[in-house]
Automatic annotation (TrEMBL), chains A, B:
SUPFAM superfamilies: Winged helix' DNA-binding domain
Species of provenance: Qipengyuania algicida
Record's keyword annotation contains Transcription regulation: yes
Protein name as catalogued: Transcriptional regulator
Lineage start: Bacteria, Pseudomonadati, Pseudomonadota, Alphaproteobacteria, Sphingomonadales
Matches recorded under PROSITE patterns: HTH_HXLR (PS51118)
Keywords: DNA-binding, Transcription, Transcription regulation
DNA sequence: CTGTATCCGTCACGATACTG
DNA sequence: CAGTATCGTGACGGATACAG
């Protein structure tokens, strides 16, 4: 946990920021969740996640594979079959992510109430 | 933890996704970190975070305020003085975020190694 | 089936100038 | 000091067509 006057310029903090961006992107968590219980084929994932384009599924899987979060196994059959599975690293990431998820569920009512109050105050001012 | 064939369309899961995006954006975590120990004034925050534009600082603070993560206190002095502070909600969010941060530090070497291996394999193929 | 290539719209973000 | 207004840019993400 390095200290720096400008967290931004610190390489370690940039790494954390980068990881948070990955987790915060539109599809990563949904894909990891879909792989949580079992390995999946490409189109299985596409159906399971729902609403994702082929392009984004491919891109996100490549990033996850590069970081060692998922493995990609090609079976040289015809038609081709590719299985994606979580690695231990990917599964271990799911733990703190789940903590954030549970925090969200626990505090969702309060957040919604806060927003309603804020928006109400804003339109009073307007 | 609601079940749905298409997580995307589930309002609870969208809320989680939204929260992850907020945490995953470029500045939120850095601002929360800067407010962790004490309340800060606008330009104090700007200096502390480092590299953020006025516009993004304002926007991010507004979002955090709307969600009830920070309070905004205006002192009617001249020149004007505005203090930002974390709420209990904001502080409680910091807990699971820190868990993710620590996971990152713990697994950074492995991730870097994975990337190097992946990139190496790629340029072999090329 | 499992991708890659291409095009395109949107929006987050940055820089700058201006205001109370 | 603490913002708001405006404009520009690039990355992100979707749709579609094509390929092995």
């Amino acid at each position: 946990m390095t200290e720096s006057p400008h967290p931004h310029s610190n390489p370690d903090c940039r790494a954390v920021s980068e990881l948070l961006s990955r987790v915060g992107d539109k599809w990563t968590v949904l894909i990891v969740k879909a792989l949580e219980t079992q390995s999946r084929r490409f189109n299985e994932l596409k159906r399971e996640v729902g609403g994702i384009s082929q392009q984004m599924l491919t891109r996100t899987l490549r990033m996850l594979e590069r970081d060692g979060m998922v493995t990609r196994t090609v079976h040289p059959t015809v038609p081709p079959q590719v299985d994606y599975a979580l690695t231990d690293l990917g599964r271990s990431l799911a733990v703190p992510v789940m903590a954030l998820t549970e925090w969200t569920f626990a505090n969702l009512p309060e957040i919604h109430a806060n927003r309603a109050a804020y928006d109400g105050a804003m339109e009073d001012a307007a």
